[in-house]
Specification:
The chain is mainly α and 447 residues long. Helices cover 70% and strands 1% of the residues. It has a two-stranded antiparallel sheet. The termini are far apart.
Length: 447
């Protein structure tokens, strides 16, 4: 009897180990946890690598940034799964260095250096944690029309990323080659085949199995470079304050705005997790804990040379796809993520996964995020007001990022904040319209 059939028959005994507090045996938890790590790994280390290239960081300094990104993402994920006091959602929330911060990170690092960026991250993280403590009175600003729009925008904005990965990854010398498409489509159809017809672990671990088989195929096709594994060391501890923190208001101000936006994005991600995995709204305690953890772990990350952490939407889609809500599974995955940072050879091995292999699995996950956003928005009948909010948020969010030259006349600060993030723009538009538009049309008696 497989997991999904258990749900249909309402058999909680078989389902319990996959619920939020369920503890599956390690033989299941390890592969299921590794699925989450494979889904976010390359994205997590890509952000510090891109920022490092912009500011001219290389060699040992770059190694420290990448190592710290892995270790701190694992620590942040572990805290979200198993909270410390009020810090953490007690949900399977995967954390990491997000592309949502990338334009702001680059802008700050270019002007104030990596130390200025880490200082701004520290202050912004504490500010975000403060928002989490006062979330309950603020929650009225996050109805389904806002959170659903944010989740939908996240899913839609990730689809081009999935297609780029399937084609070989942006900047790849073989981008768009037939070999990349053959491997990525093979992985995608293998995931679908295992999920549709597999039973037991073959079904629940369909993404991991497809990635492993796709990796073997990629090796046979000479698509994998093993040099990074040979060059990596066996063990390395992160060094706090390797980059000293400096504090400049010009760097801190845009980071504060980004943490407001990422708080809303985290609300959307957590809502998508509970809706997609358990078909319920998140509690105030879960939302508050997730945002507090987002801030506290980002401040901690800055002390350990890592960029801002936030919830990873890729993993939200995986929960919706697999229905695996156990935080124990994600916590097991976080242990492997920490090991990848402490044992560089392990991290190097995972980093050799071709983008085409990751893309074949990711495109399914991204589609699930999009569908979760639609589900949140259509849980209640759409009113004229909600249609305007959703429509304009998508128009400006997705439209402006596809025509960035339309913002050429804006100050550099605003262009850096809005120019490359559909999520930021859609989030701010949805929040603003939800505040200024009357909740219900006025009746004749009220006029």
């Amino acid at each position: 009897m497989n997991f999904l059939s258990s749900i249909k028959r309402n058999e909680p005994v078989n389902r319990s180990k996959y619920d939020v507090d369920g503890i599956p045996p390690l033989r299941e938890a390890v592969p299921l946890g590794l699925q989450h790590i494979f889904a976010m790994f390359l994205g997590n280390i890509a952000v510090p690598i891109i920022v490092a290239k912009v500011v001219g960081i290389s060699g040992r300094d770059l190694t420290v940034l990448v190592q710290s990104a892995m270790v701190m993402a694992g620590v942040a994920t572990l805290i979200q799964c198993y909270p410390i006091w009020k810090v953490g959602a007690k949900l399977p929330v995967v954390m990491g260095s997000s592309f949502g911060f990338l334009p702001t990170n680059i802008s700050i690092a270019s002007g104030y250096g990596i130390s200025g960026l880490l200082g701004a991250t520290f202050v912004g993280g504490l500010f975000c944690a403060g928002l989490g403590f006062i979330l309950q009175p603020l929650r009225r600003f996050f109805p389904k029309v806002v959170t659903g729009t944010v989740v939908l925008t996240i899913g839609l904005s990730l689809l081009p990323t999935g297609i780029q990965a399937m084609a070989g990854g942006n900047g790849s010398e073989t981008f768009g080659s037939m070999k990349n498409w053959m491997v990525s489509l093979f992985v995608m159809f293998l995931v679908l085949l295992l999920n549709q017809f597999g039973k037991g672990m073959a079904k629940t671990s369909s993404i991991l199995i497809a990635i492993v088989i796709g990796y073997i195929v990629a090796v046979a096709l000479n698509m994998v470079e093993f040099g990074p594994i040979r060059e990596a060391t066996w063990f390395s501890l992160p060094q706090p304050f390797y980059f000293p923190l400096t504090f400049q208001w010009g760097a801190i101000a845009p980071m504060l705005i980004m943490f407001v936006v990422t708080a809303v994005e985290t609300v959307g991600d957590v809502t998508a997790i509970t809706m997609g995995g358990s078909d319920r709204e998140p509690t105030d305690k879960e939302l508050s804990g997730s945002i507090i953890a987002n801030g506290v772990t980002s401040a901690l990350a800055a002390m350990f040379n890592s960029l801002p952490n936030t919830s990873f939407s890729q993993n939200v889609g995986m929960i919706s796809f697999t229905k695996m809500m156990s935080r124990y599974i994600v916590a097991v995955g976080s242990v492997f993520l920490i090991a990848a940072g402490l044992i560089p050879k392990f991290g190097a091995m995972i980093s050799t996964l071709p983008q085409a292999v990751i893309g074949g699995a990711s495109i399914i996950i991204f589609s699930q995020i999009t569908l979760t956003g639609i589900s949140i928005l259509t849980a209640e009948p759409l009113t004229d007001r909600s249609k305007v909010i959703i429509g304009l948020s998508l128009v400006f969010g997705l439209g402006l990022t596809q025509v960035p030259e339309a913002m050429a006349g804006l100050p550099d600060f605003l262009a850096a904040l809005f120019g490359e993030s559909a999520i930021v723009i859609a989030c701010l538009v949805a929040l603003g319209l939800n505040i200024i538009m009357p909740a219900e049309p006025m009746t004749k008696a009220e006029i």
